[in-house]
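Slide 14.
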Amino acid sequence: MEERELQKRRREKIDSLLSDGIDLYPNDARVGTTTASVRERFGEMTPEELERVTERFTLAGRMMAVRDFGKGAFISIQDRTGRIQAFLRKNQIGEQAFSLFKRLDMGDIVWISGGVFKTKTGELTIDVEENGFRLLAKSLRPLPEKWHGLTDIEIRYRQRHLDLIVNPDVRKVFQARSRIISLIRRFMEERDFLEVETPMMQSKAGGAVARPFRTYHNALGMNLFLRIAPELYLKRLITGGLERVFEINRNFRNEGISTFHNPEFTMMEFYQAYATYEDLMGMTEELIASVAEQLFGSRTFCYQGTRIDLTPPWRRITVREAVLAYGGLEAAELDDPARLTAHAQKLGIEVKPSDPPGKVMMAVFDETVEKNLVQPTFVTRYPVDVSPLSRRNAQDPSLVDRFELYICGREIANAFSELNDPVDQRRRFEMQLKEREAGDLEAHEMDEDYLAALECGMPPTAGEGIGIDRLVMLFTDSASIRDVILFPLLRTRETPHDE
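Slide 15: predicted structure.
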């Protein structure tokens, strides 16, 4: 009720301003600098040094605080780089401009012009000059600061614009996200990888084991899927001779939502011809450690109170070793499919006696191992049963040349030496089709177009996908994936227009 009353008062104020001929949304203002630039240049100067500065500055931003002294006032202006204080004096900016200021509200966007000085408390301040104050955009709704900030998690996610306005740390997270992606892109380009774009709508949902979102193209009269991964298209490019490609892409998986799962998410996938998954382990160490160094000046940092050390080499452990170490079973149980399934069921895992042993072992891994992998760890030698696109291991064909990277109990990356034998690939797809027929909706479909590309001859290749959102979570000390996605998917809620 209080917020509705405040909105009512603001509407009345808007009507009054309009009746006096004041343009509430002009579009002819120009800004010459930012608050951060002014602070950087003059923040360390003494008051005496600032007296000799004759330069004038034009800034614009949202009024976030007001201290009114009658014929003068201090206001705080916030732009994309931060805040700065400004001083308005009636006898300096003029009666008309000062009268306009008096009729404005916190949250309004204004333009100011003037020189710089420091107050008695040492705060750098813009001394607003004559004709140096204008309204650029009137705010109808009050800011959450009226209620001591925006702390309600759901409102923060649903109304991210408010979250960004009033929570400076949130802006820092998304500025860091942008920088992280830029650092990754630069790293790849410096190693002669070509950035490409592949289809987001695909006729086959391939490249991962996941349930897709379906859509329909009216003009073509055909069903399509939002991609669950770009893998099969990127490997077509390897076949075409591009040899080193990467894509920073949006993927869509019709799965559950949690603190580290969002149905729409960002990955970086890359493929390198004439390389193996072991080569990519070294490259991954170098990539992630270098990003950390450029962010923190160090390879060590804290995540949710735990010190993480990215100094290579990182720990390496096989799936089998990990399950024996953390899964609560002996080697004899692991090698006996019936006993392994019984152990999984005892843990409350939904598995069937008909499930392949490798799939059951990975279900036990997910339940018991992941949470224990806190420091960076490469898990290797995955079962072929859960790796339909990976190259078989030369010594043990029941395994594949694959790794997953875990940090803080979460999968950060997945990589393998690619399967480039079209005959073996067809057999794998056929095995996946049997699992689909048995009810596994995440199993891979047959993809004849991809097989045709493989039959042209794909060079030996290694490929990897890195979860950008989870990496940003790690580097920004964010507990939930929703904290690093600007607009996470939420259940639809009917919201009254004036709520």
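Speaker note: Residues 42 and 50 are 8 Å apart (CA to CA).
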